[in-house]
From TrEMBL:
It comes from the Bacteria. It comes from Clostridium senegalense. This is Uncharacterized protein.
Amino acid sequence: MVNKKLEFYYFGDEGKFDEFNPSYVCNKKYVAEILYIISASEPYSMDMFKISNRLKINVEKVENIILSLKKIRAIDERNRGYSINFPVFLEEDIKILDVFLKDVGKIIGDRVISLSDKIENEILKLNCIKSNSVERVLYHIICDEIFDGVAFEFFANKNIFSVSKSQPGGRDYIIVAYEKSEKIECHSNKLLCSSNNYRADDVLFNSFGDGNGFRKDMYRYFRMIPKSIEEGIEFHSLNIAYMDILDDFNNIITKECGSLIKNIFTNNRKYVDLNNNERKLANFLIELNYLNLDKDNGYLNIDVPVFLNSERDIIQRIGEIILLDILPCVEKIFMELKRSMDKLTSIKHEVSIKDIGNELWHQIFGYTNEYLVKNEFVATPKFKEGEGRYLQSIVI
């Protein structure tokens, strides 16, 4: 019999890849199964021995995992029993959410589309509109920058949900988990609600799409390497020490990539004119699909929309246009959801309603993004085998 397990998602600042990093802890063997058992049971009803018997592994292994989970406050303990301390959605929860989320994409999506004239007036002021379609720019601005960015502070100020959560080790993030199940993949991996960002100084390498695979982008690549090391090499302390160094080197690489991008953006550069180090960086960025090389003339081209930090006020204005308009719809949806929240797994485990609300907003804007794509109001990210659907951009 295959043991059921959870899949994890992280929003906020996870910090370096160490024992306080939720991705590091939750990637350990048996963690996904142990947290499923705890979440699917009555709060504080499962102790180490019951978990050990359920999974048929020795108690010492369970104890080590429990200690790691307590260190990042992913679980609470009472009378030797455990309860989850972050939003978890099981198959039974999705049945409840489906009632409220069924038409949400169309409701909010139609409101956004009705604002197209006002939005386009602002979009046309952006520098990148000269070399990109309106739909491509709208994809990054509305689906990502506004719904997965500006909206969080906007709705947090309206006291609708939490933006972040202070965590051990000086981190600031929220963990969210879903039962690993084909029945609920459309609520987790297959919605357009995942923004990957890797920043160095004033340059940001971004991708936005679904979570249905491992994207070939800056953020995901630098996060995959430590996980691969930890999974493949058993020298735990050595891995941690090396990954601490690796994290610093990744930041240096990203800064140098950012400098090259700005140089290419400002001054047309030919590949043959680059020095040896710049060529290595260019090759890396070409592989990540942020750059391409024009073989006819030898020039390097930035292959994604480039947004300017100086244009933030334009994005803020678009955000205000959209968010003020959809606010009554969002407030109504959350009011209706709260009336049925007592039946959710997370509420039974006394997880903060505002933390749960953070993920519910991801669901809401994920369905809205799908509707906007379907109606061709924004660009359509093509599916890539093993990577999912996503589009990339850069901010300088």
